[in-house]
């Protein structure tokens, strides 16, 4: 396994600075954010460390040289919009942009992109399914042609009343993953596995590793703390941030020793990227960098 | 405490038969269903053991004599419609009928009715709140005038996709109860406390007994089993019946010894009514009666 | 479900006395032991409540009348020898006798017999398998022809050094059951499910109920207590009675509420027979009867 | 084992009434209180069901006849004063009275008395020990001569600030029992084992059964509930009633199935007497009787 | 948060050496002991890294320069005597000395001192309270005037028979803290929060962080191991060191990931000082230094 | 304690390379494998970092100089054959070789060798015992004469069907250790304590540290993960590798903080050697080295 981080937490740094920091802080890879340039639509979104808009061979060569010189690799190109948003114009735009991300990944010989499935959050999984198939069947084929694997993060994208009730990403449970892969069986279609989202959904985050061992294309290292006292007040029908908090690895419920133990035993040798979304560490760039350093110290006990 | 049962499980028996069975099976009280005569709108609804439509003093005398002769009392009159349904005509009808239930409770000197708050299940708690206040403030006053206490059952009324996402009863968590009682502080407004609904919401079902000790006007004895393997497949964002099953007391997760231990210590001496909604016991009238006998054997270990 | 008991614990009573005791103690069925007359070969074996040697229609009629008059039914005819013993003469004798048990079950219209698979305890499962298939394939066919279902008890028959290392019954784990039913798929071949043997094998005794729901032909209600301090001294490589003790239901580790909850939910409505093998209750006939009465009181909380 | 109760909870009943109630409620023995007539010095003390002051052979005959006719036996004569009180006059009085209790037990052929060791609660265990030895060495000899076994209850007699810090009974932990029996090794000196007092002391209440198997002369069936929220507020240095409540069997933390399972396996066949000290059941004589009936229903699942 | 250590474990080093070691071992602050010069009255006491007796501006400048040059800060000045000792002369002396510590903290612009409340250990909390108020009300005012915050460590100071029964520091439980802050509400009066003392008191060490978030002026990182086997022998009424052992962080029961996770979420950004009181690491200065290095390695996983 | 590793995992490195790697990777000692040169008989066996065949004073001087220059010490010489194999010729050979290992340990002034007891795996412990005594009584005397302590690893050497049923090493449980040390009480005879083998045997791996504190001559740091789902399928009568996997420290069930906490408190200050047998890290020499580096990072949190 290779320890990396998600570049979204360092929006104020240039690509060069991100890569240099990675190298210095002991990270061997980075998941680089590729949002279209412009205003972020939500927290942790809208970061552009590689601008894929007119990304060509020469740009690729520059980026690859930069990374090689720092001894850091790209784990994946990341872009996490809502492909199934009710706003059909937006849906078209994000689809087009995502294809550019895929093309850039191919040019960079990264071979891996990360994203969400999206969801019309006002509708049930069932109601979203036909549109999901319509959008994603050709999209997976597009990526497969370019030999780029897609890792869908298993985050429900449901935090507060804004995304209530369904959240903005269908791919949140093992039952749904099974259905995804039955309906679109391409080996290029897989998961960006993040155990933290399973914790607060009260789903065993170890067991699915065995079943989906061939579908884990990327992994995120984020943690969450479920506060029993808060949960006792609102219950699971409350909105998720009422009872849990995203935290750095080691500051939450995930048993990282066990998780990485099984991850290794299923033969996974890909990237494990720290995703910092811990409000206690977001006060300044210095704190966000400290969060990444602390996470590396913690995870390096369990990673070769 | 007095052991009773909810009469909804015996729709095929007359009031006399219900009462005689209660007596013979060792129950000392019954919560009598008072739905309007007609077709049931859902499972366990639509049962009429007392027809409150034109219920007068004479009817009350007949019922009271019947019960006295069997040595069985009425724990409450029960009617559990959706007061906040988007169908405004239906909302009017159920409100009118509920007032009759209250009047009957007063005539019968029972002093207690049981129901739900209702909810427009397509809307958030926040969006439902103004209408809740509008409907319930005068309704509680109406009951208070007649010295009839209302016990709101804490069931989310969310089982399958039909009630998704919000369920048909607002009163499902301690945080919401606190708000209810702050906004409508009448002592006639309280809970029909059923621990089973808290279990699958992952809410401690003991702790709220201390805080809401003065608001527990009635109690249900139902149990649930959460199947970890099923929950691991769909998570808490699945629909609740995908991962839990309502069961008889003793066949689920509730620690009845502890629950009744604390219920006694907060000074509760009212009815504890078995509510049978266990599909394994619904094959025949004989099975449903057997369910009630078994539940009595189980609970009598913990109840004086 | 019907509460019964295994008659082996009452060897000093005649069939009539067994049946009368069952009736009086609140049991609705009995699993009747059908060992050949003669000396018991081990504790709890060698009991003959029905002598199947020359058992004919008339005998069947007598027995059925006796049971009918007491309102007690036969859950199964039981005979638990070692079909795969290295002593080939003994193996022949027990096979012949078991066929008589099957015939008697057919004549009595009981339709159910209970036994073990047997095992050459000095050999591995793998080494025993060919002989198992050779003996059992025709035996299951023999029973199927007579419409008699066979319930194989899942006891490893490994207690002390005498049965070391393999025990005298192959059918001890879910993996082995799966293989049994794949190799001999007849619906007449199933389990006599006893949760207690799974407890000390550290196997979840609930989970297999779902997978093997169609194979549960009979059930035993026995419990065990694992003594952690004793286990800490010898470990699982010690002989099983060094760290666990068979006990009456309620005096061990089995969560009977949960076990019977799921047993009901998978649609099982057959017998649940108390098997008394608790040394603390074996001092006298009076104690053994008391054990059965106590077990009935305990289990009747969870059984209709 | 024989199910009994401690008569202290029925001070308003005569001996005859106590015995008749025992018989009717399904109890087979009673621990009879033998305080000197007069005012109770604390809750549950001062009850006199047998007045031992001038108790002679004829009195014994009357009592024994009364019990025989009801089919109820005496488990022990009980008197629980503070033998080591700083008030030396009181200490003399209670010692003299206790000798009369022992004599009465001999006359009644009960052979068993129950009490405390006592303690000067303002002093440490160490400081109390010399006086303990001085008082108890001859006292045990006195009982041994009359073949009366003494069962010392393992209650710390520390509830509120009044008994702070040491409590009024030295015999509260396994380490102290070991020392007691090393210093006074008579087989007539043993324990009246009550698991509930060990629960709130955070001592395993099962493990000592094995070590002290020959010293268990009597047993009490009382339960306690430790309220985690209350304990979290004051900690174990708070006074015990700040964080626990004595409760009826089944309404507390004791795992009665396991406790009685091991109690049986160590060969104990003596009395198990319900001791009611549950405030939720003390409102009236009817409630106290109901408490005893409920306790019998609960315990009869685990006792032959 | 800033990682530091309590200087008491290095009594053989000069201030300069302490500071240099801190810097080299990766610590960013130190809590400096300020006992009066002379003989230690108990283990870990009597250490003087800053002599506050005649401490003036010039001394302050020297110390500050020394620290600045090493890049290490002072977390607090510490002095932990018994302000409420029955020896009134001693009480006067310690009060006078503590005022000097406060003055020194002001001169050094540290703004923080750490200590105990003290207690007459032979008396109850209640009996100590009037004297506590009399001593501490003006003392807190004295500190407030100088803008120095006081962090009271929550150690019961009860280890062996010597401090029995009450211990030498009142401030040991959340209930007592609440009362302290209600009676002396100054914001300069707060806690030096050490989770380890709550562990063996069986108090949740996370929950109070939320309630007392504004009162946490300093924190200690010490751990304890509770040995269940030892506790089972003596119970909570034994003296605390009979069942627990103070240990380095990571070698005990504290879940440091969770503790520091919540500590961060309540907004705490102050010092977290390792307090070494682990007998396994006290054999030599080298071992005590190794203990501090090991603790830093352990804690740096969870601290930025 | 001194952190080391077992050299068996680096068979492709020369002694010099092993020692240099140890030094560079932060290890302070190494357990050096001393198998006779030749083919390995099983995984992790057959490694020869010191060839003891004709090992003399001069060889010892060379080795010691090599180690001294790297600042690394030898924790023990290791050789783990089966002394009690049914192949008597082999038994003679291994005995003779082991004596050479002991002699080499004496020459090197290491004073410690590590091995197994051996076992005829087809026979019970009881049946092996006489031969164990015959072989080991003189062998221990031989070592004692040379002041070399023997540490017997507590591995059952039972993994798959090949070693079924008994495994190839008798010394697997506390009960057996007790018997070993009673029958051969020499202080030179002790344990090479590895907690991981106790985990899957369901034996507390902390408790024996107290009882056998004087017998722990060496310790291994290996971990195991028990996969509950796999255990649920085969139970403890399955072969051990069906339900558990050896893993690096931190990737399994062992609570290293607690284990090393108690190991320190019993006064152990010897070597703790990482034994890498984790299949996920065996792909290449680079991975095996990475495994050792990771293990050091993990364990250094808990070791001085």
SSE layout and pairing:
6 copies of one chain form a homohexamer.
Chain A: E1 2-6, H1 15-24, E2 29-33, H2 57-70, E3 73-78, H3 88-107, E4 112-115, H4 125-145, E5 149-153, H5 174-183, E6 189-193, H6 196-200, H7 207-211, E7 216-221, E8 223-226, H8 228-234, E9 244-247, H9 256-265, E10 271-274, H10 285-299
Parallel strand pairs in A: 1-2, 1-10, 2-3, 3-4, 4-5, 5-6, 6-7, 7-10
Antiparallel strand pairs in A: 8-9
Measured by DSSP, the beta-strand proportion of chain A falls in 15-25%
> Considering DSSP H and I runs of 4 or more, what fraction of the residues of chain A is helical?
25-40%
Categorize the overall geometry of chain A.
globular
Average pLDDT number of chain A:
97
The number of distinct helices of chain A, counting runs of at least 4 residues, comes to 10
Q: Greatest contact pair?
A: A-B, 29 and 29 residues
In spatial order, strands of the major sheet of chain A run: 1-2-3-4-5-6-7-10
Gyration radius over CA of chain A: 18 Å
User: What order do the helices and strands of chain A follow?
Assistant: EHEHEHEHEHEHHEEHEHEH
Low-confidence stretches of chain A: none
Major beta-sheet overview of chain A: 8 strands, parallel, barrel
Which class best fits the helix and strand makeup of chain A? alpha/beta
Distance between the termini of chain A: 7 Å
User: Total number of β-strand segments of chain A?
Assistant: 10
The oligomeric state of the chains shown is homohexamer
């Amino acid at each position: 396994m290779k320890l990396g981080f998600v570049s979204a937490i360092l929006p104020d740094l240039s690509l060069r600075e991100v890569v240099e920091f990675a190298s210095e802080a002991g990270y061997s890879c980075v998941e680089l954010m590729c949002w279209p340039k412009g205003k972020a639509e939500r927290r942790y979104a809208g970061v552009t460390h590689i601008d894929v808009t007119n990304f060509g061979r020469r740009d690729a060569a520059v980026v690859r040289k930069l990374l090689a010189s720092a001894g850091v690799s790209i784990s994946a190109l990341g872009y996490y919009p809502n492909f199934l948003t009710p706003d059909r114009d937006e849906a078209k735009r994000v689809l087009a942009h995502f294809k550019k991300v895929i093309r850039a990944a191919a040019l960079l010989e990264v071979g891996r992109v990360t994203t969400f499935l999206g969801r019309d959050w006002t509708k049930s999984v069932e109601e979203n399914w036909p549109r999901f198939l319509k959008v994603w069947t050709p999209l997976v084929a597009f990526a497969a042609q370019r030999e780029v694997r897609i890792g869908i993060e298993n985050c429900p994208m449901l935090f507060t009343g804004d995304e209530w009730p369904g959240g903005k990403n269908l791919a949140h449970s093992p039952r749904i993953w099974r259905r995804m892969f039955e309906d679109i069986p391409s080996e290029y279609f897989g998961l960006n596995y993040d155990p933290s989202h399973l914790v607060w959904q009260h789903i065993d985050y170890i067991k699915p590793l065995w079943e989906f061992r061939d579908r884990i294309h990327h992994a995120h290292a984020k943690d969450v703390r479920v506060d029993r006292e808060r949960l006792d007040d609102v219950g699971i029908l409350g909105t998720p941030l009422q009872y849990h908090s995203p935290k750095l690895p080691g500051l939450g419920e995930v048993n990282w020793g066990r998780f990485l133990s099984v991850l290794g035993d299923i033969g996974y040798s890909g990237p494990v990227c720290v995703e910092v979304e811990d409000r206690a560490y977001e006060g300044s760039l210095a704190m966000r960098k400290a969060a990444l350093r602390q996470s590396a110290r913690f995870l390096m006990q369990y990673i070769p």
